Amino acid sequence: MQLVRLMLRLLMHKLGLREVCPKAKINPVISIPKHAFFKLRNRYLADTLIRFLKSKTPSGCVRIGLTNKDISHTKGNIKDYEIMGLGYRPGSSCIISNYRLDKINLNEQLFKLAVHERGHTQGLSHCSIKPCYMRDAEGKKHKDEETGFYSKSMQYLKSQGWKLN
Ligand SMILES: [Zn+2]
Predict the structure, then answer these.
(1) Is the domain defined by 2-159 classed in CATH 3.40.390.10?
(2) Tens digit of pLDDT for each residue in 22-70?
Protein backbone atom coordinates (compact mmCIF):
# COMPACT_ATOMS: atom_id res chain seq x y z
CA MET A 1 0.00 0.00 0.00
CA GLN A 2 2.90 2.31 0.74
CA LEU A 3 4.19 1.63 -2.76
CA VAL A 4 0.86 2.55 -4.31
CA ARG A 5 0.69 5.91 -2.61
CA LEU A 6 4.33 6.68 -3.32
CA MET A 7 3.83 5.81 -6.96
CA LEU A 8 0.82 8.03 -7.36
CA ARG A 9 2.57 10.98 -5.75
CA LEU A 10 5.44 10.42 -8.17
CA LEU A 11 3.06 10.41 -11.12
CA MET A 12 1.36 13.58 -10.00
CA HIS A 13 4.70 15.28 -9.56
CA LYS A 14 6.40 14.16 -12.78
CA LEU A 15 3.50 14.71 -15.12
CA GLY A 16 2.04 17.67 -13.34
CA LEU A 17 -1.25 15.81 -13.25
CA ARG A 18 -2.75 18.39 -10.94
CA GLU A 19 -2.02 21.08 -13.52
CA VAL A 20 -3.71 19.07 -16.27
CA CYS A 21 -6.49 17.81 -14.04
CA PRO A 22 -6.93 19.75 -10.79
CA LYS A 23 -9.15 16.97 -9.50
CA ALA A 24 -6.40 14.30 -9.77
CA LYS A 25 -6.24 12.40 -6.53
CA ILE A 26 -5.07 9.24 -4.82
CA ASN A 27 -8.00 6.95 -4.19
CA PRO A 28 -8.32 4.66 -1.18
CA VAL A 29 -6.89 1.17 -1.60
CA ILE A 30 -9.53 -1.29 -2.81
CA SER A 31 -9.54 -5.09 -2.75
CA ILE A 32 -8.82 -6.91 -5.96
CA PRO A 33 -12.03 -8.62 -7.16
CA LYS A 34 -12.03 -12.38 -6.66
CA HIS A 35 -13.77 -13.00 -9.98
CA ALA A 36 -10.65 -11.72 -11.77
CA PHE A 37 -8.53 -14.57 -10.38
CA PHE A 38 -7.42 -17.18 -12.92
CA LYS A 39 -6.78 -20.15 -10.68
CA LEU A 40 -5.16 -22.35 -13.32
CA ARG A 41 -2.17 -19.99 -13.59
CA ASN A 42 -2.40 -18.20 -10.26
CA ARG A 43 -2.84 -14.88 -12.04
CA TYR A 44 -5.39 -12.12 -12.35
CA LEU A 45 -7.12 -11.31 -15.62
CA ALA A 46 -6.13 -7.79 -16.64
CA ASP A 47 -9.21 -7.27 -18.82
CA THR A 48 -11.47 -8.09 -15.87
CA LEU A 49 -9.51 -5.72 -13.63
CA ILE A 50 -9.81 -2.92 -16.18
CA ARG A 51 -13.59 -3.44 -16.39
CA PHE A 52 -13.77 -3.47 -12.58
CA LEU A 53 -11.82 -0.20 -12.35
CA LYS A 54 -13.92 1.32 -15.12
CA SER A 55 -17.08 0.58 -13.14
CA LYS A 56 -15.63 2.68 -10.31
CA THR A 57 -14.43 5.54 -12.50
CA PRO A 58 -16.55 8.69 -12.81
CA SER A 59 -17.35 9.87 -16.32
CA GLY A 60 -14.59 12.03 -17.78
CA CYS A 61 -11.90 10.61 -15.48
CA VAL A 62 -9.20 7.96 -15.89
CA ARG A 63 -8.25 5.52 -13.16
CA ILE A 64 -4.81 3.88 -12.96
CA GLY A 65 -4.93 0.67 -10.93
CA LEU A 66 -1.75 -0.55 -9.25
CA THR A 67 -1.27 -4.10 -8.02
CA ASN A 68 1.51 -6.39 -6.86
CA LYS A 69 -0.31 -9.43 -8.29
CA ASP A 70 0.69 -11.27 -11.46
CA ILE A 71 -1.60 -10.29 -14.34
CA SER A 72 -2.28 -11.62 -17.83
CA HIS A 73 -4.62 -11.24 -20.77
CA THR A 74 -5.52 -13.01 -24.00
CA LYS A 75 -3.21 -12.04 -26.85
CA GLY A 76 -3.94 -13.60 -30.22
CA ASN A 77 -3.94 -17.36 -29.79
CA ILE A 78 -2.35 -17.16 -26.35
CA LYS A 79 -5.13 -17.31 -23.78
CA ASP A 80 -2.98 -16.42 -20.80
CA TYR A 81 -0.22 -14.03 -21.84
CA GLU A 82 1.72 -12.61 -18.88
CA ILE A 83 2.01 -8.84 -18.84
CA MET A 84 3.18 -5.94 -16.70
CA GLY A 85 0.31 -3.64 -17.59
CA LEU A 86 -2.68 -3.14 -19.85
CA GLY A 87 -4.59 -0.14 -21.08
CA TYR A 88 -7.21 0.13 -23.81
CA ARG A 89 -6.89 2.71 -26.58
CA PRO A 90 -8.72 4.82 -25.66
CA GLY A 91 -10.05 3.93 -22.24
CA SER A 92 -11.06 5.23 -18.85
CA SER A 93 -8.99 2.80 -16.78
CA CYS A 94 -5.78 0.81 -16.99
CA ILE A 95 -3.90 -1.60 -14.76
CA ILE A 96 -0.22 -1.91 -13.93
CA SER A 97 1.58 -4.54 -11.86
CA ASN A 98 5.01 -4.50 -10.23
CA TYR A 99 5.09 -8.32 -10.15
CA ARG A 100 7.28 -8.73 -13.26
CA LEU A 101 9.31 -5.55 -12.97
CA ASP A 102 12.97 -5.64 -11.98
CA LYS A 103 13.26 -4.69 -8.34
CA ILE A 104 16.13 -2.32 -9.13
CA ASN A 105 14.82 1.18 -9.88
CA LEU A 106 11.35 -0.11 -9.17
CA ASN A 107 9.74 3.30 -8.74
CA GLU A 108 11.19 4.54 -12.02
CA GLN A 109 10.03 1.41 -13.84
CA LEU A 110 6.57 1.72 -12.35
CA PHE A 111 6.43 5.33 -13.44
CA LYS A 112 7.36 4.39 -17.02
CA LEU A 113 4.84 1.57 -17.03
CA ALA A 114 2.11 3.84 -15.68
CA VAL A 115 2.65 6.57 -18.26
CA HIS A 116 2.75 3.91 -21.00
CA GLU A 117 -0.65 2.51 -20.05
CA ARG A 118 -2.03 5.98 -19.34
CA GLY A 119 -0.81 6.92 -22.81
CA HIS A 120 -2.91 4.09 -24.25
CA THR A 121 -6.00 5.32 -22.41
CA GLN A 122 -5.32 8.73 -23.93
CA GLY A 123 -5.41 7.11 -27.38
CA LEU A 124 -1.72 6.52 -28.07
CA SER A 125 -0.54 3.43 -29.93
CA HIS A 126 2.90 1.89 -29.62
CA CYS A 127 5.97 3.78 -30.84
CA SER A 128 8.82 2.23 -32.81
CA ILE A 129 11.41 4.57 -31.25
CA LYS A 130 13.35 2.49 -28.73
CA PRO A 131 13.72 4.99 -25.86
CA CYS A 132 10.06 6.06 -26.08
CA TYR A 133 7.77 5.30 -23.13
CA MET A 134 5.28 3.97 -25.71
CA ARG A 135 7.59 1.22 -26.96
CA ASP A 136 5.93 -2.19 -27.13
CA ALA A 137 7.40 -4.49 -24.45
CA GLU A 138 6.98 -7.52 -26.74
CA GLY A 139 7.40 -9.80 -23.75
CA LYS A 140 10.76 -8.29 -22.78
CA LYS A 141 11.98 -5.95 -20.09
CA HIS A 142 13.56 -2.81 -21.46
CA LYS A 143 12.16 -0.09 -19.24
CA ASP A 144 15.72 1.03 -18.44
CA GLU A 145 16.19 1.99 -22.10
CA GLU A 146 13.18 4.30 -22.09
CA THR A 147 13.83 7.98 -21.45
CA GLY A 148 10.67 9.86 -22.42
CA PHE A 149 7.90 10.39 -24.97
CA TYR A 150 9.15 10.98 -28.48
CA SER A 151 8.01 12.25 -31.81
CA LYS A 152 4.32 11.65 -32.49
CA SER A 153 3.65 10.42 -28.93
CA MET A 154 5.02 13.65 -27.46
CA GLN A 155 3.16 15.85 -29.95
CA TYR A 156 -0.09 14.00 -29.41
CA LEU A 157 0.04 14.15 -25.62
CA LYS A 158 0.87 17.84 -25.69
CA SER A 159 -2.13 18.39 -27.96
CA GLN A 160 -4.20 16.62 -25.29
CA GLY A 161 -2.99 19.01 -22.62
CA TRP A 162 -0.19 17.00 -21.01
CA LYS A 163 2.52 19.23 -19.61
CA LEU A 164 5.68 17.63 -21.02
CA ASN A 165 9.09 19.16 -21.66
ZN1 LIG B 1 1.40 -0.96 -24.70
Answers:
(1) yes
(2) 667 788 889 999 999 999 889 999 999 999 999 999 898 889 999 999 9
CA distance 59 to 8: 20
- What are the extents of the domains in the chain? 2-159
For residue 107, report the distance from its CA to the centre of ligand 1, in Å: 19
- Residue 118 CA to ligand 1 center (angstroms) comes to 9
**Which pLDDT tens digit goes with each residue over 105-150?**
887 888 889 889 999 999 999 999 999 999 998 877 888 899 999 9
Residue 137 Cα to ligand 1 midpoint, Å, equals 7
Strands (E) in the chain, as ranges, are 37-38, 43-45, 63-67, 71-75, 78-83, 85-87, 93-97
Interatomic CA distance for residues 3 and 66, integer angstroms: 9
How far away, in angstroms, is 127 Cα from ligand 1 center?
9
Distance from the CA of 155 to the center of ligand 1, in angstroms?
18
